[in-house]
Amino acid sequence: MKPTRLFVAIIFIFIIATSVFSVTAQQDDALFDVALNATDEICAETGRNQACYGHILVDARPQQGVTSLTFDQAGDIADVARISSLRLSGFDPDTGAWGVALMRLQANLPTARMENITLLAFGDVELENAVEPVETVPVTIQASQRVNVRTGPASVNGVLGTLAPGATVEALGQSENAEWIKIIMPDSGQPGWVSASLVASEFDLDTLDVIAAQEPLFGPMQAFFFSSGENDHSLTEIPPNGILIQTPEGVGEVNLLINEVNIQLGSTVFFEADDELTVTTLEGHADVTVDGFTETAFAGTYVTVPLGDDFTPAGRPNPPQPFDEEYVNRLPHDHLDRAVEVSPALTQEEITVLTNDAAGDDTGTDGSGDDADNGGGDGNGGSGRPDCPGNSCEAPGRSNGNGGGNGNSNGNSNGGGNGKGNGNSNG
Questions:
Q1: Strand pairing partners for 106?
Q2: Residues with Cβ < 8 Å from 227, sequence gap 6 or more?
Q3: Residue 3 pLDDT more than 70?
Q4: Is 399 in the same domain as 350?
Q5: Is residue 212 domain-shared with residue 226, that is, in the same domain?
Q6: Is there a domain that residue 1 lies in?
Q7: Is residue 76 part of a domain?
Q8: H or E element that contains 306
Q9: At which of 359, 382, 417 does a domain end?
Q10: 3-class DSSP state of 64
Q11: Average pLDDT value for the chain
Q12: Does 290 share its domain with 355?
């Protein structure tokens, strides 16, 4: 073959190959769009603390003790508390499989708010629920006036709120000395403690599980382990494997425990987990904490945490780095509950400024202190009653004071400042 003809033949083959690749890429893009649009439609009725099977393939395993779990085909919806694990399929061009699952979670959002956290998992992802189901029993407040709900099982602990006489709440457990009951606040969903002497129930409260004072309480799927398949940044036509999590607008920050890494976010964030947990923030921010060390993934950056073979932290979080805009733009963030204006990648200089500003915020300047006991009462004789505002219902007919003494409790100042709040606790 003459050189000119050979050159023409090579060019022709290149054009054909390029055209085939372009058509294949367009077909793949169409498949992803179809899968995500179908998920939007069939999962629209997914409620609080529920998961929806969006697109094939998704394999769900039930929690221990759950005898039946219907989560076998697209459109199936189940309570996340009944799910032990989910396994999503990576992209398979031969079968058209590309697993998609949607969850709407309460986490630590107030019960009174209707909005939920949105969790969209796609591609090669395995997710394991780290929250064991908790059996609760209803208890009723037995007091003549409102009763304080405290942050811990002692009258020296701060007050979260109050409950009216006759109010019914769910009890989670009891203190080691059985003198306090851990309950769920009906409006906020926060856990708190009330004196066992102030509640009644048709159930035997002695059978409640013993809960340590500082043991955290997680809502359904608020804590989980997950892993994702390795992502190739050069495959621009395929969305990366991972999980998008979005918090509702105007609710402040939400707490999650992912692979035993504490995540506090008020934003839209993408998570990946292979040899490291990667936290990429599209908007807002995410605080990533391990063993008391925190790095913030600002919008336009990502933070990584090295993971061991068991996918738990093997070191501290690394400082934030600028994210890859092309990579982030492949994420299906337009299929979340609210529209996202993705931040551009920050420069190193911008990251340095934000990091320094955040460090300055932690020096503590308010000096107001958190009073350990907001229950009130003046400690005069037997009338001081710290677990009802102004009068205690903690121990009817018994004074917690020594008569007439006003005890000063030194509160810890927020952010490490030097301020001390002197709260008037009952002697």
A1: none
A2: 125, 126, 273, 274, 311
A3: no
A4: no
A5: no
A6: no
A7: yes
A8: strand 301-306
A9: 359
A10: coil
A11: 82
A12: yes
Q: CA angle at residue 297 from 291 to 300, to 5 degrees?
A: 170
Residues 342, 209, single domain; the answer is no
Tokens in use for 130? 């780290």
Helices (H), 381-427: none
Query: Is 196 part of a structural domain of the chain?
Result: yes
Cβ–Cβ < 8 Å for 345, 323: yes
CB 86 within 8 A of CB 127: yes
Domain that holds residue 223: 12-131+219-359
Stretch 351-372: mean pLDDT = 64
In a domain, 402, yes or no: yes
Which pLDDT tens digit goes with each residue over 224-256?
999 999 876 666 678 999 999 999 988 888 999
Sign of the dihedral through C-alpha 37, 38, 39, 45? positive
For residue 361, the model assigns a pLDDT of 60
Is 174 a residue whose pLDDT tops 90? yes
Look at residue 28 in the predicted model and tell me its pLDDT. 57
Task: Output 372 or 362, whichever has higher pLDDT.
Answer: 362
Q: Are residues 43 and 80 in the same domain?
A: yes
Which residues does residue 426 pair with via DSSP β-bridges, in sequence order? 406
Average pLDDT over residues 212-220: 83
User: Mean pLDDT, to the nearest integer, of 283-297?
Assistant: 97
What six digits make up the tokens of 111? 């019960």
Please identify which residue in the block is written with the tokens 């599980």.
209
Domain identity same for 244 and 350: yes
pLDDT of 387 > 70? The answer is no
92 against 381, higher pLDDT: 92
Which amino acid belongs to residue 398? R
Place of tokens 């299929």: 335
Q: Which of 112, 131, 126, 100 is nearest to 260 (CA)?
A: 131
Cα(380)–Cα(392) distance, integer angstroms: 12
- The arithmetic mean of pLDDT across residues 62-79, rounded, is 94
DSSP 241: S
What does the alpha-carbon distance between residue 24 and residue 18 come to, in Å, rounded to a whole number? 10
Starting from the edge strand earliest in sequence, which strands make up the sheet with 58-62, in order? 58-62, 83-88, 125-129, 223-228, 254-258, 261-265, 285-290, 293-298
Residue with token string 């190193």: 348
* Cα distance between residue 304 and residue 313, in whole Å: 10
Whether residues 25 and 123 fall in one domain: yes
For residues 200 and 192, give the distance between their C-alpha atoms in angstroms, rounded to a whole number: 16
Domain limit, last residue, from 310, 332, 359: 359
Q: Please state, in angstroms and rounded to a whole number, the distance separating the CA atoms of residues 350 and 111.
A: 37
pLDDT digits (tens, 9 = 90+) for 9-32: 444 444 444 443 343 445 556 889
The residue among 223, 98, 100, 159 whose CA lies nearest residue 389 is 159
**Alpha-carbon span 71 to 259, nearest angstrom:** 24
